[in-house]
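pinned: reference chain
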Amino acid sequence: MTSPYHAAAREKRAAERILDERNGNSGGVVRGSSSSRGPHQLPLHSEIIGTEDHGHGSHHHPPAPKSWFPVREGGESGRSGIHPWHFVRIVFRSSSLASRVVNVLWPVVPAAIALRYAAPEQDLAIFILAYIAMVPCANLVGFAGQNLAKKVPHVFGVLAETTFGSLVEIILFIVLINEHTHGMSVDTTQVIRAAILGSILATMLLCLGLCFVAAGFKREETHFSEIVSEAGSGLLLTAGFGLAVPTAFYNALHGRLDTKELERKTLELSRSTAVLLIIAYLVYVFFQMRTHHGIYDAIFEADAERDDDKHKELRSHRLTLIESIIALAVGVALVTIIAIMLVDRIHFLVEERGVSDAFLGLIMIPLVEKAAEHLTAVDEAYDNQMNMALSTVLGSTLQTALFNGPLVVIVGWGLNKPMGFNFELFDLAMLILAILTVGNFLRDQKTNYLEGVLCVIVYVAIGVAAAHYPNPHELHEAFPTNASPAPATNGSEGAHH
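pinned: its structure tokens
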């Protein structure tokens, strides 16, 4: 059955072909220029910039020099090079009201960095400030990624936006794995494993639920393409299965093999699984960008036509290509500094404040690292771009499961760190149940605010359980014998029996 998105896209392309033929017969007027649009159509962003009234009377600016990089029409800024005042103003305004509210937190960033050096013994204050400071820094990375994504074709733009949004997560994971030391009281590999699953759960339940709720503010029901939902749901289930294999292997053979031998085999299996998952992700990217990009282009173009804020988008100011790259570089640098500050205080938080590894990894780290992507997806859903929002949510989830998580295993392999996929059974059970729940909600290609509220409630329930979940070393102290449900401490631990 033909979806309305495909039909709308085909009608749009047919109209464009007719317009091209008419323009060719009437003197070769270029489609997309102001002379070929009707009186009620909005002008292009570059035309608005050229005729903008700056308070000194209407006048025309000369067109921006032709860029060496072919920029998509929707991503044109009407400028070139670097303009400091425009750069700061555009970054602060950001892409949505929620992002602008987040930008109010920017003064916390220098405060956190200053406190780290002025009073390094204030661990709790430094952690709180660094945790808050990560949000505007991540938002800057996400905003710069959005601007870069709008300058390239739709499908590549969605993938690029998801990748840039995941930079915060990748940086945090690499900083955590680099801090791992054998015999330390807080096992950072355990935190990373919880954070991998926590990131998937936060995006798949919390972010998707908020998207459904945001869309429900304006519409009783919101529809989306079956292609986006079915491809995403199938890959999520495959990713969950791949992540579960090492844990199932460890639990099936525990007590039958020597502990050290079993841990070595589990670690080798985790590394092999990581390579296979990365291959699966690359095939998924190739599927979207090469062999089936036309289908996704049609869906995203139809979504862009339905955007409730399309008139505002056309009039909004955008960063130039160079400004986008600079903003991305600044954001990544700040995120790295803040991530190091957070990781340095994890030992204090776990040992002195009694925060469990499960709560830290499943809830606290994913919430701050995914803030920018969550704001973007919710804004898209509110503007009636549910396919774009769903692609952002599923794309981010799949990138964590199929690329970011396996990548940190490969990095740990290179650094000779025992980072594997042997998860806590509690964490893994929550992941599989969440995948099944979300897949059931996506099956009928429509949603409402009730389903969104249910997703958020499920996420909150998982958070409450994680807050009460004991740390592995506490279980080991309580059950010091071989019958202990606690794992060993060489880095491939994580399963309870």
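why pinned: Confidence is low (pLDDT under 50) at residues 1-8, 25-62, 64-69, 481-497. The two ends are 47 Å apart (CA to CA).
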